Amino acid sequence: MVPSSTFADNSRNTTSLPQTSSPAMQALYDDLAQVAQHSDTLLLVGEPGSGKTHLARLAHKFSWAARGPFIHVNCSTLMKDMAAPLLFGHKKGAFTGAYNDHQGYLQQADKGVLFLDEIGDMPLDVQSQLLTAVEGEHEFRPIGGIQTLTSKFFMVCATNKNLLQMVHQNIFRDDLLSRIHTFAYRIPPLRERKEDIPMLAQNLLDDFCKNMTPTRKEALSLTQEDMSLLTDHEWPDNIRGLRAAMERYSVLGKLDLNSHIHSLFPNGIPPSPQDQMEKAIQALAQGAVDTGATYEDIKRMLFSHILEICHGSRKDAAATLDISDKTIKRTLTGSFSSDGKTYPNPTSER
């Protein structure tokens, strides 16, 4: 919790709640306005495009930190070796390439909001350092520094991942989740708040048309039929997809609710090696039943198939199978005849 003196002046905050016809969103907005004034953490969970960044900025406006900065950090872009220096700062000479002192995101967010977008992608070792920094007095030390710094900020976290599942998989810290989940909210996807679609669509269209001539604006008016089409659509990309549709409509003058990305790639997204491996296992398992192949036969066929998927790279095949490349080489040495084929020795070290 934040000391009351920190937000004593927040009664002057005149930010109004966004309009909504969705009971779920109204409840979310109401809670957000209260939590932002009295807490130092907030967790937002929602599908891609559901409006997590918008709600984080709204929380900033309502918060005790409304007069401070809004520091947006996309955790998925934090490289493992640079995550700590970027978050906590570093001193000159702390590591190769540290030519100057650098103020980290935590220090930049002092008396403001630190928005950790996609926190589920934060490197595990940095999660521990972050937990230490947001406990107690919010103290931390820049990389290579000896002086302890203090930064008071409202930490808003967002994710589209299942953090509880990640804890069980040992890729997200349980103690950090406990620290940030006191006020945690799920953002309803657009398909669960369809009553808001007409208003959102009109607001987005107005924004795209604001610099157009009155005649052009009138030509782009949404009809009742248009609104019905928008409301009936499932919107897998949520508000991001609705925004794209309104942008296309403002430019082309016709309502097209489907993303064009799939038409650009008619063959679809190629399956990953892991997906192909699962299919190969299923096919080989059925083949084993049909032909009476032995366990060793199946293992050789699987290894050979993955090697083909990885374009002959034994190293990549080993990574896909999570085994050593020596195991692949040893297994595939020679040939076997259960399926009437001969498999070459894998010699590629690529």
Describe what you observe in this structure:
The chain is an alpha/beta fold. Helix content is 46%, strand content 8%. It has helices at 23-38, 52-62, 80-88, 105-108, 124-134, 163-168, 174-180, 197-209, 214-219, 224-232, 238-252, 261-264, 273-291, 295-309, 314-321, 325-332, and strands at residues 41-45, 70-74, 113-117, 139-140, 149-150, 154-159, 184-186. A hairpin with an 8-residue loop joins strand 4 (139-140) and strand 5 (149-150). The model is unreliable at 7-12 and 335-348 (pLDDT under 50).
**Head-to-tail CA distance between termini:** 54 Å
Q: Write the H/E string, N to C.
A: HEHEHHEHEEEHHEHHHHHHHHH
Strand order within the widest sheet?
A: 2-3-6-1-7
**What is the typical, i.e. mean, pLDDT?**
84
Give the overall shape: globular
Q: What profile does the largest beta sheet have?
A: 5 strands, parallel
Number of H/I helices:
16
Quaternary state reads single chain
Broad structural category:
alpha/beta
The radius of gyration computed from the alpha-carbon positions, rounded to a whole number of angstroms, is 27 Å
Q: How helix-rich are the residues, as a percent range?
A: 40-55%
Low-confidence stretches: 7-12, 335-348
Count of DSSP strands: 7
Write a concise synopsis of the structure shown.
The protein is an alpha/beta fold and 350 residues long.
